Here is the input.
Amino acid sequence: MLHLSDESDTTFCYLSAKDVAALCTPDVAMKAVDQALRLHALGRTILPCESYLGWQTPSGSDARCLAMPGALWADTGLLVGLKTINSSLGNTVAGRKRSDGFTVLLDPETARPIAVMQAGHMSALRTAAVSAVGARTLAPGSQSLAIVGCGTLGAAHAAMLTHTLPSLASVRLFDLHRPQAESLSAYLSAGPGRFTISVAPDAATCLRGSDIVIFATTVTEGYVPYGWVSESRFVGHVSLDDLLPDVFASCDYLVVDDWSLIADDDRRVLGRLARAGLVSGPDGQPEAVGPGRARAVDATLGQLLTGQRPGPGRSDAVVVCNAFGMAILDVALAGAVLTAAHAAGRGVMLEL
Here is the structure.
């Protein structure tokens, strides 16, 4: 069980963005996310619905605040926490980071805060780790990667996937703001150099023939038909609104992180399809799509990792991973970062 000291009733550990960046590495994120997904499938987590607040900024941009609590019984004991992540679409136009926030860890006995840390880096890295765990499990040996959307999330995916998938030989990038894609290309080019990197002129070209495709955009209306991803092995629908409904109906295998979060949501495409009765959860056997019949989700990532559900069964299957995002992943990763902070002597103790 995580604790600080006998003074923990009056103090908490603060970890800055610099601290988190040093401690939260791709390997740390992969281990924490993999364990949390397994624990969730085994029923060893508490995952309430997130709280969403949306508004328009005085300058007319869409903004939102998400508050995401969660708890899990990890190897170190019970972890309890809350992530708040907040964003404004106007930030990117002004050259600022689109989103950031804090993750708070609580003492499971007293419920008092024991740590507060910057959430933006961890949030992006754990999101990328989910995609990496999925791709590693469902599309091993993939050689080509395409990323549509080259902001913070796209960059996190590029770093995570090129680090964890040694078989990758090529990376193709696209962003509506081409300089952003070129900047990410330059960053990747400065790395080990074991793969080719190119910037595509449009999204369709970027996706064509790629084994793994990642959508990390800010769109709110779908634009990607099944034909654009029909040759792919793993489709990471990270931004949750890029795919048109026919992609979900036509793919060979549909995987999520948590069905209840998706079914309760009325903003994203898969939640809307669930409410319309066109997609059902993973509780029953998958059914063929037809008049009056819903396409069933085949499995959760945790069920795959624990062997509770089989995979697609063939290497050429088109897999769509629609991971909504679970607070337990942030809490698990925050616990790992706090443990690393104690070992490294990092962080500042502050009075409550």
Notes: The longest strand covers residues 62-74. The chain has two domains: 11-122+328-351, 141-324.
